[in-house]
Design goal:
single chain, alpha/beta, Rossmann fold, seven-stranded mixed β-sheet, binds guanosine-5'-diphosphate, G_ENGB_dom, GTP binding, cell cycle, septation
Length: 195
């Protein structure tokens, strides 16, 4: 799936800008600075493909990438900027809700969780939204190289406990480090199984 070039298709700011739902789609969500751009770049072997597009006040776009003419890889803007203007946050939440609730071709969401911090309140919010939208989601631990094994186990236990309360959560987690390349093949393999 990621052997060929993954290409940027478009940034979407409103529902009528969505490309036709004619292929398998997966999306990535996570708090700002969780390592989402780095993970998408590692996944697709393309440095600089996904930019950190999470400056407060900046237009919030849903970024679409095409992989192998068969999949859309979707980058949802980073959430959790407490100081973003309310109007921006509200508009973004409306678009996000509409997208998640109405996208027939969306097979799975990957919710990125920083291995140092575990599940935060804003992560809970997106998970609850995914429950309500009946979008299966899978947690992906990022920056695993930044924590010692014992600490990682503690965070994993916390994440598992949190996930168990979400009906849309897929039970298996993926532990990654974009820096070290850990878990990237696992993530690719999971995506390849989704049709
Ligand atoms: P985004 O805001 O979620 O797109 O996050 P970025 O991908 O821009 O990453 C935020 C910061 O974390 C950057 O300074 C990255 O270099 C760093 N980072 C991302 N992934 C990793 C990782 O796997 N390991 C380490 N040590 N740092 C990472």
């Amino acid at each position: 799936l990621f052997a060929g070039e993954t290409e940027f298709l478009k940034g979407v700011v409103a529902m009528d800008g969505l490309p036709p739902a004619d292929r398998t789609e997966i999306c990535f969500a996570g708090r700002s600075n969780v390592g989402k751009s780095s993970l998408i770049n590692a996944l697709t072997n393309r440095k600089g493909l996904a930019r950190a597009s999470n400056t407060p006040g900046r237009t919030q776009e849903i970024n679409f990438f095409t992989a192998a003419d068969s999949h859309y890889i979707v980058d949802l803007p980073g959430y959790g900027f407490a100081n973003a203007p309310l109007k921006v946050v509200e508009a973004w939440q409306r678009l996000l809700k509409a997208y998640l609730a109405g996208r027939q071709s969306l097979r799975r969401a990957f919710v990125l969780i920083d291995a140092r911090h575990g599940v935060k309140a804003v992560d809970e919010e997106i998970m609850t939204l995914l429950d309500r939208s009946a979008v299966t989601f899978q947690a992906v631990l990022t920056k695993a190289d930044k924590v010692k094994a014992a600490e990682r186990e503690k965070v994993l236990a916390q994440v598992r406990t949190k996930l168990s309360k979400h009906p849309a959560a897929y039970p298996e987690l993926i532990v990654t480090s974009s820096e070290k390349g850990w878990g990237i093949e696992d993530l690719r393999a999971v995506i390849a199984t989704l049709e």
